[in-house]
Structures are given as structure tokens and as C-alpha cells.
Design a protein that fits this description.
Blueprint lengths: L10 H9 L8 H45 L5 H11 L6 E11 L2 E3 L12 E12 L7 E10 L2
Length: 153
Amino acid sequence: MTALFGFKDMTMIRHFRLSGCLGNKDGNAAIEFGLAAPMFIVSLVLMLDVGLAVGDRMELDRNLRAGVQATMANMNDLDAVRDVILAAASEPDALTVAVERTCTCGGVAVSCVSWCTADEPPSVFVNMSAMQDFAGVMLPAMTLEAETHVQLR
């Protein structure tokens, strides 16, 4: 008779059958967990990455709200508003902040020094935006952006 896996007369299979190893279910949970654990770990890291990105984006919004409050408190110096936004940030060096004033007459952009008509001044807006780079563990590198507009008049 030919040897099966190096054993004559299937003695190894007979040994497993007699010892009860083929029908034994001990350790199934450990094997199933070992197969599922990598998926759980990848999901956990991905959720952590998304959570950090959302948290950073929320901080950008919070920083811009500080600038909005400064503008609404009649702070007309745009550089000072920019400094308030950077002061509100936990990592100001990582932020790119832009603050600009725009004016419109009837929805058309105009110079802020001229009036729309003899008795109607232009609508004045302060536009603020902030950007921050985000490099996640599993998420690709991206730029988080937030912007807001405040109408002064």
C-alpha cells in the first residue's frame, strides 16, 4: 500500500479519529477571533482617523467663531481679527488664515469707499477662511477648510 503523507495504512488519521481531535470543538472561538481581529483593528484605526479629522475641522470652525465675535464687537482691523483667530487655535503654526473685507451694491461687488447711491452705503462683509493640513494613519493626506462670512452693514 502507498504511503499517505508519509504514513502507511492511514495510521495518523486513525489516531486523530480515535483520540477525538476531529470532532473536538475546543478553541473554535480563538480561531474565529484570530481571523476577525485584523478587520476589527483596521476598523478601529479608521474610526480613530475619521474622529481626529472631524475634531480638527470642528476646531477650525471654533477658531473662526472667535474671529466672528471679534468682528461683531466692532473690531475693524482685519489683521487684529486674523490674530484673534490664530490666538484661539491650539496649533496656530499649522493654520493658514485669510481675512478680507468685501462690499456689494445689490449683489454686485464694488469698492468699499464708494456709495451705491447718494443715500445708500454698500453692504460690507468680512470673509474669513482657515485651512489646515491633516495627515491620517489610514486616511489620505488632505486639507481641512472652514470659512464664514459676516455682514457688518
